[in-house]
Amino acid sequence: MDSIYKALADPSRRKILDLLKTKDMSVTEIQEHFSFTQASLSHHLDILKRADLVVTERHGQFIHYSLNTSVFEDVAQMILTYFHYDKPDA
């Protein structure tokens, strides 16, 4: 769970996740939305992948990134439970 918190702590990584909500994207497509180097983007994507927040799929010579929705569902449930939103008001 610590790797997920680390991944979500960075605004650039949250923006990458937000972009991937709309569609799967290659590194080149993601890079269009940032001013940092491709090496920095690769580092951010690696952190997201290690946290299991994104998954990759090769399409020819390109790797496409997409959200790992099952992990997001688990994280959302954990957060709701942590804040006791899973219990009706008494």
Properties at a glance:
globular, 3 strands, alpha+beta, Arc Repressor Mutant, subunit A, 5 helices, three-stranded antiparallel beta sheet
Task: Please give a structural write-up.
The chain has 90 residues and is an alpha+beta fold. The protein has a single domain, classed as Winged helix-like DNA-binding domain superfamily/Winged helix DNA-binding domain (Arc Repressor Mutant, subunit A). 58% of the residues lie in helices and 16% in strands. It is built from five helices and three strands; from the N terminus they run H-H-E-H-H-E-E-H. It has helices at 2-9, 11-22, 27-31, 38-50, 69-82, and strands at 25-26, 54-59, 62-67. The protein has a three-stranded antiparallel beta sheet. Strand 2 and strand 3 form a beta hairpin. The chain starts with a helix and ends in an 8-residue tail after the last helix. The mean pLDDT is 87.
Could you give the topology of this structure?
Blueprint lengths: L1 H8 L1 H12 L2 E2 H5 L6 H13 L3 E6 L2 E6 L1 H14 L8
Antiparallel strand pairs: 1-3, 2-3
Helix pairs in contact: 1-4
- CATH top level is Mainly Alpha
Distance between the termini: 30 Å
**Sheet with most strands: strand arrangement:** 1-3-2
CATH architecture: Orthogonal Bundle
- Outline, from the CA principal axes? globular
Main pleated sheet: 3 strands, antiparallel
Going by CATH, the homologous superfamily would be Winged helix-like DNA-binding domain superfamily/Winged helix DNA-binding domain
Order of helices and strands: HHEHHEEH
How many β strands by DSSP?
3
- Any idea what the radius of gyration is? 15 Å
Name the quaternary structure: single chain
Q: Give unreliable regions as ranges.
A: none
Strand content: 15-25%
Provide mean pLDDT, rounded.
87
- Total count of domains: 1
